[in-house]
Design brief:
With 306 residues, this protein is α/β, with parallel strands linked by helices. The chain is 24% helix and 25% strand.
């Protein structure tokens, strides 16, 4: 039987760490940035390459998804020039309405740096009605997209994330409000939301409160980054496990961690509900292009699909 064409497609990319790193002044490095600056020149600049990002942009242009979700870490040490560089990259990627962005820990490396990023990237992370702040809600095609920020400035050697009580309350209220729409819903978050994903100094500190929320107001899937390798986990949901999909850095050549990777989510109508198929694309260094690695079909929460 011929397979139905997808109703809506979403590309999930993350941890772009857009190169190159601009020059930094003395006072800009007189804080936690210095360690990340040294790390960039010692190792990370050999991992996050412009050629990989260029290949990603080309492939996204060929696949032409209906929407693109970016789950944080567009920058390396959140210099204002980096934030501007990321803004230009987003503007050249697709129309504003086709992109949803949340920040990552590198986008909030030192106190105050996140505020400039939020102002610069506001068009991609505000509600459809113009409300500014997290969580935000984007209604795109048949899908509801909710963006949460876990980006907080932390002391040196820490890269943990935090949602906070206010965001959790607003997220629950938002999910309760849209539940009657019977549309698939995606939750965007930078830090991995599942247990034992990484060490406590790098993890999501209040993930258990998020788990409790999802047992009351489940979503179709959770998309995240931070780990720099592709992974599928499961979160406890009211109607069964909720798939959580993490992707590798979108600019990595694979010198130290996984090669660049992204998800292409394909939603197809099946009866009164939806079928969710995920294609995994991975960077092939020799070809300098992204290639299809494998495909999987994910279970869709009955409560999200009607």
């Amino acid at each position: 039987m011929k397979q139905a064409n997808p109703l809506f497609t979403i590309a999930h990319i993350s941890d772009l760490h857009i190169p190159p790193l601009p020059k930094a002044g003395f006072w800009q490095l007189a804080n936690k940035r210095l360690l990340s600056y040294l790390s960039w020149h010692r190792k990370r600049k050999y991992e996050h390459q412009q050629q990989t990002l260029d290949a990603l942009r080309v492939h996204l242009g060929q696949v032409n998804p209906d929407h693109i979700c970016i789950t944080g870490d567009l920058t390396n040490i959140t210099l204002p020039a980096e934030v501007d560089q990321a803004q230009d990259w987003l503007r050249n990627l697709a129309e504003e309405s086709r992109i949803s962005v949340i920040p990552g820990n590198h986008d909030a490396l030192v106190p105050g740096s996140l505020q400039y990023a939020l102002r610069s990237w506001q068009p991609w992370m505000q509600d459809d009605d113009g409300r500014i702040g997290f969580p935000f809600l984007h209604r795109r095609g048949p899908v509801n997209i909710i963006g949460i920020s876990t980006a907080v400035a932390t002391p040196p050697l820490l890269s943990l994330g935090w949602i906070g009580k206010r965001q959790l309350q607003r997220t629950e209220a938002m999910l309760a409000e849209i539940a009657s729409e019977h549309r698939p819903s995606l939750l965007l978050i930078h830090h991995p939301p599942h247990d034992r994903a990484c060490s406590p100094r790098r993890g999501l500190s209040d993930r258990r409160k998020l788990h409790q929320l999802l047992q009351r107001q489940p979503v179709t899937a959770v998309l995240f980054g931070h780990l720099h390798y592709p992974i599928r986990a499961e979160l406890p949901g009211r109607d069964g496990p909720i798939p959580a999909l993490g992707t590798a850095s979108g600019s990595a050549v694979g010198a130290y961690k996984a090669r660049a990777h992204y998800h292409l989510l394909k939603f197809t109508e099946v009866g009164a509900g939806y079928r969710l198929e995920v294609e995994h694309y991975e960077y092939a260094p020799q070809a300098q292009a992204f290639k299809l690695r494998d495909t999987e079909v994910l279970p869709v929460q009955a409560s999200a699909s009607g």
